[in-house]
Design brief:
Elements: H1 29-43, H2 49-67, E1 74-77, H3 80-88, E2 96-100, H4 105-112, E3 120-124, H5 129-132, E4 137-143, H6 155-165, E5 168-172, E6 189-193, E7 205-209, H7 254-268, H8 272-290, E8 299-303, H9 308-315, E9 321-323, E10 326-330, H10 337-347
Parallel strand pairs: 2-3, 2-4, 4-5, 5-6
Antiparallel strand pairs: 1-7, 6-7, 8-10, 9-10
Helix pairs in contact: 1-7, 2-7, 3-4, 8-10
Length: 349
């Protein structure tokens, strides 16, 4: 392997300058092939819904392994906000939901819609979450890694603070699972859309529910896939819910499933510590270029209110993003030292 190559790069088509895993992960070569194979089968009428259902169960098991929980604790959906809405049904009237200022809307919006029930959303700075938990707090909802700037929450302190007052925790792993080796086991509820750091196609999301909490929530979007035996539960005369978290399943987005299974299988075969070290090492290389101190996140963000740095990167062929007045880049499996060098050239620092 050359100095400028990634040890994981052979899984991906070349994508020089793609510094945007925090916006959308890239499909591996195998994932792209699985997606094309699905379309080819669909085009000639060989769709097999039963086989797709079996693939959903493999996705559930693979995700559970990556998240460190039992498969029966995992529900499969299509978007984070809908899965968060199910968690919202567990809140009593008048409950306080504590969240981080500036957290992603899909995590916070579902709770803001419960004002008619007296539910209050109280945002505080991310670093203040552990100390802001009080006797009225019913739920602490936060992203483990913040979308806008990549900050990593002190999840251990938040969990301790929630336990002291009997509050539950809901954690969004969308910007962390796949590079940061922290799973779902320490939290009451977690959600994750797999299309970012797990490099799956957009359209498959997961909810993990701690054992004993299923009955606290209402499966507001229950359908034929919310049963253990979906083919025996298609019609209104027999609609049992699944025994575990599968009761919160949504009907899967079929074109996404084959790609999701292939993507999750790739990550199941990787060493999480090696991925973390690779991603963080490159991110800290970029911080050095930018004159920033080392950090603990694979996402690098810096103030760029006029968009000048973002424009310079884009002009140099670098795919990056702008969020909340920041320029934002990220490093993942396909990236290498060559991308850090390209960043330095684009910004001339």
């Amino acid at each position: 392997m050359n100095r400028g190559e990634s040890p994981f790069g052979h899984h991906f088509a070349p994508a020089p300058g793609y510094l945007a895993a925090c916006t959308s992960g890239l499909p591996s070569i195998a994932t792209a092939r699985a997606m094309r194979d699905f379309v080819d089968e669909w085009a000639v009428g060989r769709i097999d819904p039963a086989a797709i259902g079996e693939s959903v169960e493999r996705c559930r098991a693979l995700y559970a392994g990556l998240a460190g929980v039992d498969a029966e604790r995992v529900a499969v959906g299509s978007q984070v906000s809908q899965l968060v809405s199910v968690v919202a049904t567990s809140l009593p009237d008048g409950a306080e939901v504590l969240c981080a200022e500036g957290d992603f809307a899909s995590l916070v919006h579902p709770f803001a819609q419960l004002a008619a029930r007296g539910v209050r959303v109280r945002p505080v700075p991310l670093e203040a979450l552990p100390s802001a938990i009080g006797p009225e707090t019913a739920l602490v909802a936060f992203s483990l890694v913040q979308s806008a700037d990549g900050r990593v929450a002190d999840h251990a302190a938040i969990v301790r603070g929630a336990a002291e007052v009997g509050a539950r925790t809901l954690v969004d792993l969308t910007q962390s699972l796949g590079w940061l080796p922290v799973g779902a086991a320490d939290f009451d509820f977690t959600v994750c859309h797999a299309y970012k750091w797990l490099c799956a196609p957009r359209g498959t999301a997961f909810l993990a529910v701690r054992a004993g909490l299923d009955d606290t929530m209402t499966p507001v979007a229950a359908g034929w896939c919310s049963a253990d035996d979906v083919w025996a539960s298609c019609y209104a005369d027999h609609m049992p819910l699944a025994a575990g978290a599968g009761r919160f399943d949504l009907s899967p987005a079929w074109p996404s499933i084959a790609g999701t299974e292939t993507a999750l299988r790739l990550f199941a075969g990787l060493d999480p510590a090696a991925v973390h070290a690779h991603d963080l090492g490159l991110a800290n290389g970029a911080r050095a270029v930018l004159g920033l101190p080392p950090g603990d996140s694979a996402i690098v963000a810096w103030a760029d209110p006029d968009g000048r740095d973002l424009a310079a990167m884009q002009a140099a062929g670098i795919t990056a993003s702008g969020r909340a007045g920041n320029a934002r880049i990220a490093f993942h499996l396909w990236n290498s030292a060559a991308d850090v060098e390209a960043l330095a050239g684009a910004l001339r620092r």
